[in-house]
Amino acid sequence: QVQLVESGGGLVQAGGSLRLSCAASRSIFSINAMAWYRQAPGKQRELVAMITRGGTTTYGNSVKGRFTMSRDDAMNTVYLQMNSLKPEDTAVYYCFAGYGNWGQGTQVTVSS
Predict the structure, then answer these.
(1) What whole-number distance in Å separates Cα of residue 26 and Cα of residue 60?
(2) Distance CA 80, CA 63 (A)
(3) In whole angstroms, what is the distance from residue 23 CA to residue 104 CA?
(4) Edge to edge, what strands does the sheet with 67-72 contain?
(5) CA 111 to CA 86: how far, in whole Å?
(6) Nearest to residue 90, comparing CAs of 110, 63, 106?
(7) Helices then strands, each counted (H, E), the chain
(8) Nearest C-alpha neighbor of 110 from the set 50, 40, 61
(9) Quick one: pLDDT band at residue 84, thresholds 50, 70, 90?
(10) What pLDDT, in 10s, does the model give residues 13-71?
(11) Is pLDDT above 90 for 87?
């Protein structure tokens, strides 16, 4: 079991950037993969990005080339750098560490 706390969300204009952080309550070194998901109102939760223990990343088609996920095992933290934000990126962003371990979410709102 691991507790996850997201931060860094907020309101930004289209074209702007935000960096989300997800701090874990224990070492993430042994966690095979961590991910960011998002859920917009009335829509299903979708995968945004995933990073393996070895650092391999995978991105959802809608964010490829704009978002970058990274991890800092020493800080027990993963990040999501979001650039060129669009209004359709507006959602609650959740950190996931597998086995039902979800953060509480952080709101990202992109104004046009």
Answers:
(1) 27
(2) 11
(3) 12
(4) 4-7, 18-24, 77-82, 67-72
(5) 8
(6) 110
(7) 0, 10
(8) 40
(9) very high
(10) 999 999 999 999 999 988 999 999 999 999 999 999 999 999 999 999 999 999 999 99
(11) yes
